[in-house]
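Regression check, S-adenosylmethionine case 239:
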Amino acid sequence: MAASETHRAVGREVLGDGYAGQLGYAGEHELLRMAEVCGMAPGRTVLDLGCGTGGVASWWARRTSARVIGVDCSGTALRIGAADESRDARAAFVAADATALPLAASSLDGIVSLDGFGLDFARLAREARRLLRGGGRVALLISLPAGGAGPALEALAAAGLAECFVEDQMEPAAALMSRWREAYRRAASGHIAEVGERVHRGIVDEIDELLVGYREGTTERVLIGATRLQAARSARVAR
Ligand SMILES: C[S@@+](CC[C@H](N)C(=O)[O-])C[C@H]1O[C@@H](n2cnc3c(N)ncnc32)[C@H](O)[C@@H]1O
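Current build output:
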């Protein structure tokens, strides 16, 4: 998917200027909302967890002037992204697993993830608590089995993060995914010639499954936010 010219053409058709090479389902509006929730700004350092080819990390760095560290466990995705000479110099990339991040404690101001990790929120929450400085924030945009946001928030709170909240993103996601699906259908013959029938079918089926899940209420699309409080405030909240 990451290396496919058809995927890029479909992305540009669906998202226009909001196409940043993303594999996850988000347009400009969602990417800017994630940047806002996690407080990306000049002088801040933010981790993009499961960054894929890193197009979005670079886009965020360009749009917000934050320093963005993209981490992904796929060396292939990172290698494909490294060939992109238009990447923003404020974005840097590391191959690592989300469960063992080679980053120093209290070294980050934010953590974002766009469809970029598994469902082990307890582990993610503990890493977020370790890596974030006081005031640092988390912004995760993800599709979950219905009811999954509650346990995710509980895991973040249990790890000591505060101000945890969920924003429903179902409607914009469904609209966006319908457009991806139609664009992929129009581009089907070229896409199949490029990546093969199995891969093409897999992508369209995944979109269809998500759309059915949203419609039938078995899947939810959410933006999850949380904050690592400053030490003094955190102690007051604990009392
Ligand atoms: C759907 S892609 C999204 C990529 C990127 N966020 C984007 O939207 O372009 C999911 C990415 O998460 C990465 N990923 C999944 N589990 C991971 C883990 N445990 N540690 C690091 N990366 C992971 C995959 O390698 C893949 O590149």
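Comparison notes: The first helix runs from residue 5 to 15. The chain has a mean pLDDT of 93. No diff flagged against the previous build.
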